[in-house]
Amino acid sequence: MKYGFFDDLNREYVITNPQTPYPWINYLGSQEFFSLISNTAGGYSFYKDARLRRITRYRYNNVPLDLGGGKYYYINDGEEVWSPGWAPVKKDLDNYECRHGMGYTKILGELNGIKTSITYFVPLNTNAEVHKVVINNKSNVEKNIKLFSFVEWCLWNALDDMTNFQRNYNTGEVEVEDSVIYHKTEYKERRNHYAFFSVNAPIYGFDSDRESFMGTYNGFHNPDAVFKGEPTNSIADGWHPIASHCLEINLKPGETKELVFLLGYIENDPDDKWEGKNIINKKKAKEMIQTFSTIEAVDRALDDLADYWDQLLSKYILDSHDDKLNRMVNIWNQYQCMVTFNLSRSASYFESGIGRGMGFRDSNQDILGFVHQVPDRARERIIDLASTQLEDGGAYHQYQPLTKKGNNEIGGNFNDDPLWLILSTVSYIKETGDYSILDVMTPYDNDESKSKPLSDHLKRSFDHVLNNLGPHGLPLIGRADWNDCLNLNCFSSEPGESFQTTTSKDGRVAESVMIAGMFCYIGEEYARLMEKVGNKEEANRAFAEVRKMREVIMEHGWDGSWFVRAYDDFGRKVGSHENEEGKIFIESQGLCIMGRCGLEDGRAIQALDAVEERLATKYGLVLLNPAYTKYYIEYGEISTYPAGYKENAGIFCHNNAWIMAAEAIVGRGDKAFDYYTRIAPAYTEERSEIHRMEPYVYSQMIAGKDASRFGEAKNSWLTGTASWNFVAISQYILGIKPDFDGLIVDPSIPKGWDGYTVTRQYRGDTYRITVKNPNHVSCGVSKITVDNKEISGNILPLFGDGKLHEVEVILG
């Protein structure tokens, strides 16, 4: 069942039924000010940090669903009260439409001849959200309506806001001037920032106190002021500050009126001090309001936003026979990669914005799918991440985006984390050719006195694996590797005894074959980088250590038909035919093959055949099989999930991409693309009632074959699935892969394809690469011509002339 349709021309997903299986959301903002908005106008806004600078309030797990707060508008037309976004009033509308686009959402509602559209967006380089409201009288009679706006202020720190009521109920303060409602809570005490909500027209009245607006026992769906048609002009004094404007609007038949609402955030200069009980420095707010005071100015800002996305999405453009593939590659996958780059895993409809911050592992992986769009920002992020690294090469697992400080609550000891820094840096250099990043003086643990060149951080990342090897010569897993729920050191001394958390420093010896595979894959990239910068000694050392690790994997990490997942603290295999449950895991199969283990002796093919036999389902590849049906204390959290969910045999979409890449590496393009289509959102649209999540972005998890809700997705938007699936399709399947000396062309596609064209911007030049497959093979390049001249090999030359270069690739 479908709830809308793709409008590829306008790069929009159009929702035509407001009652989607789950709220289908969009993200607004691309620099510092961000908003989440659902298809019925639920959601919230924040500045930089969803925990420490939350601007508007939202309640997760709310009943009814997604009525936890939003940017709501109400219309009282004298006969009925309704909302253009259907919610929160939930009055049946004559017409409804939500268009989620690139950095904007447009919601249209129509009832009783009144058509109202609201376009929500965050202008470029602006710490504010604009609401362009257009109201049209489509009837043949004059209409007199009252329009009410509504946002509810969060008291800045989202965690404190939802827990510290004994204080917060006494601190709310607002100020109202003309058509602007200012949220200044705690401004005079310890903050030098405030927020505001304005409209570019005279108002009939306002409310800034929630109970006065709603009534103490009412909800968002039936606020007293709206249903009575009379604002109370309340001034919040403690309790729950809000911002609601009321405007009287007269519309003759056919007449249209346009309004601009602005939700803004102001961070004052240090010398802009509090001037008294009811006075804040409003200069910057007034300047911002003036900037967007007209519809013409708002439309220009919308055009600028469209141009921005045109530029971002022009870097990699696919023209193929498959519309679903084109829209994923050209629009939605790249758009999601930008969102995950901005927010890591901090704020979604599954992440509250309070607990996660920016993940070290997560953010490094997100760069892989984003670096081709705005490499300068990727460079900045790499330095930020490296600055949180610890001197031993380990890393804080998370950091807060506002402070850029490591999160001590989570700490480190996730032993895969350091390797991802190498991969993101290598990917940046391959994209840009900018080796100077290696010389940037970068602190450890944000201590400037401990600054070293970034190249030193990479060396310590590489050595962190070598300095933490277990009894088999495999890397120690630490608290966990990529799979946060596989906690092989989290118990006392014997299976069945009381649970406690320990680490390898306490003598634990659990080992990860997955990290070993990563080390071969990423370590070889490190060695190649050292070779490129002329550090032959380090390159030779790194190549030798990678070769040694491959030998260890093939000796101790091979289980006869697939790669072992790990060794627990008792030296017993995990992910082996020797186990009763959890005999095979997906992660070590993908990453060991990406690390070029088993390619020469056929064992890589054996492992991939085992993946197909044991892990493949119609909705994607499950993480392990058989699912755990009982609790194994020595495995940690993984077996606490019900069978088929999350890490316990769920379809964890992130690591599906590693199998796609592995299948491409061994030349099985049909299988690689088949796996791609099983989880790519555009291919799930027809089964939205089962999948439930947005059909335009990836979800982290789809319930596996052991689950009662097989095929149901969760945790959409903020997932490494976005970047890795873009890497899998663009670099491994379509085969256009940046390298140190140019673009490598090495497709691995279904045999039935006739070909395709990729237009790729790279280091200032544009390559239009037409791949032809006359012999209907999956892989193998027989001939490449560049500007009608045949080249040897499959690396496209670098020109540096800023021109378009025509490339023809013949497979065979």
UniProtKB/TrEMBL annotation:
Keywords, in A-Z order: Glycosyltransferase, Transferase
Pfam families, sorted: GH94_b-supersand, Glyco_hydro_94
Domain Glycosyl hydrolase 94 catalytic span(s) in chain numbering: 308-735
GO molecular function, one term: glycosyltransferase activity
Biological process according to GO: carbohydrate metabolic process
Domain of life: Bacteria
InterPro entries associated with the record: 6-hairpin_glycosidase_sf, 6hp_glycosidase-like_sf, Gal_mutarotase_sf_dom, GH65_N, GH94_catalytic, GH94_Enzymes, GH94N_CBP, Glyco_hydrolase_94_b-supersand
Domain Glycosyl hydrolase 94 supersandwich: 11-293
Keyword Glycosyltransferase assigned: yes
Record CDD domains: GH94N_CBP_like (cd11754)
Protein name: Uncharacterized protein
Provenance organism: Herbinix luporum
